[in-house]
Design a protein that fits this description.
By secondary structure, this protein is of the alpha/beta class. The chain has 3 domains: 3-88, 3-Layer(aba) Sandwich (Udp-n-acetylmuramoylalanyl-d-glutamate--2,6- Diaminopimelate Ligase, Chain: A, domain 1); 97-299, Hexapeptide repeat proteins (UDP N-Acetylglucosamine Acyltransferase, domain 1, 3 Solenoid), CATH 2.160.10.10; 309-337. Helix content is 14%, strand content 28%. The strands form 6 sheets. Strands 8-10-13-16-19-24-27-30-33-36-38 form an 11-stranded parallel β-sheet, with no helix packed on it. Strands 9-11-14-17-20-25-28-31-34-37 form a 10-stranded parallel β-sheet, with no helix packed on it. Strands 12-15-18-23-26-29-32-35 form an 8-stranded parallel β-sheet, with no helix packed on it. A hairpin with a 2-residue loop joins strand 21 and strand 22.
Length: 338
């Protein structure tokens, strides 16, 4: 689709600077061509404005002196670019209907607006909202409830008694409601602890490919509204994730831990069980959270990359930190007594 730059400005809340033009799509500023819209979000890229072939640029008011072409002025150019991208590239919605190879339990009501893909399985007492899409090969188990406009991509498994809100997206390989990891030592073996809770997922939640959310042991696992979970993330049983928290790939939250609202969790972060992380916390990549975080802010752990030879030396010295700390304390005490 194509749209006038002036109309685009009005729709996404920007101010038009310069001449109007027709925008067909968006592009990176280095590869943009005529008819495309690019953006500048950092002043170090301002020199690219003079070399780009884009018809228009999204930029900030204070950077206008560097812009000799049509522009959209935004306080947050990156956010404005996302809005423009969504407008120029609307999501494709699958046609409604039920594929002949789908297996649907007797008595399940499929709304006329819903789509059920090839070889999908819908078990008993499932409740589906309007415009729900169930991709090929996905399995929706007994007593699951899925809200309006939720999209389940191919090969997703939603286990029994899971509740899912409106406008959610689950990508391929997602498993919701599998048993939590719970065992008790019984002599020389382990006895499995029954997982009797369920999973509750709010509205506008997105879960990336091959991520898993375990069902609760006694209490429910709860993913609140607006949470965004990347690929390859593990959410343990009884975990509660607060509204609009974002979790990056290869992270894990162990059982019975509560994460607050508007947290940003980087890639490869590990959060231990039975603790609380308050709202508005940022955890940088590879951070290990071994105790509760009670104040908002940015937290990090881990050792920065180094040459292997130096890293091995420092790793050996790390083993002596406790001894060195005790020696230092003893020296300080001796100095104070003199």
């Amino acid at each position: 689709m194509a749209i006038k730059l002036s109309d685009l400005a009005q729709t996404i809340g920007c101010r038009l600077h310069g001449e109007d033009c027709l925008i067909e799509n968006v592009a990176d500023i280095d590869s943009a061509e005529a008819g495309q819209l690019a953006f500048i979000y950092n002043p170090k890229y301002l020199d690219k404005i003079s070399t780009t072939n884009a018809s228009a640029i999204i930029t900030r008011e204070e950077w206008l002196e560097n812009c000799d072409k049509s522009a959209l002025i935004a306080e947050n150019p990156r956010l404005a670019f996302v809005k423009a991208t969504r407008l120029l590239n609307p999501e494709k919605v699958a046609a409604s209907g039920v594929c002949a190879s789908a297996v649907i339990a007797e008595g399940v009501n499929i709304p006329e607006s819903a789509y059920i893909g090839p070889n999908a399985v819908i078990q008993g007492n499932v409740q589906l909202g309007e415009n729900v899409q169930i991709g090929a090969g996905s399995v929706i188990c007994n007593d699951v409830s899925i809200g309006n406009n939720t999209v389940i991509h191919p090969n997703v498994s939603i286990e029994h008694h899971t509740t899912i809100g409106d406008n959610c997206i689950f990508y391929s390989g997602v498993v919701i409601g599998t048993d939590g990891f719970g065992y008790e030592r019984d002599g020389e073996s382990y006895l499995k602890i029954p997982q009797l809770g369920n999973v509750q997922i709010g509205n506008n939640v997105e879960i990336g490919a091959n991520s898993t959310v375990d069902r609760g042991a006694l209490h429910d696992t709860i993913i609140h509204d607006g949470v965004k979970i990347d690929n390859l993330v593990q959410i343990g049983h009884n975990v509660v994730i607060g509204r609009h928290t974002v979790i990056s790939a290869q992270s894990g939250v162990a059982g019975s831990t509560t994460v607050g609202e508007y947290c940003l969790i980087g890639g490869g972060v590990s959060i231990r069980d039975n603790i609380e992380v308050v709202s508005n916390v940022m955890l940088t990549g590879r951070t290990l959270v071994s105790s509760a975080i009670k104040e908002p802010g940015s937290y990090s752990s881990g050792i920065l990359v180094d040459h292997s030879k130096n890293w091995r030396k420092n790793a050996l010295r790390f083993k002596h930190l406790d001894e060195l700390a005790k020696r230092l304390a003893k020296l300080e005490k001796a100095c104070q007594s003199e």
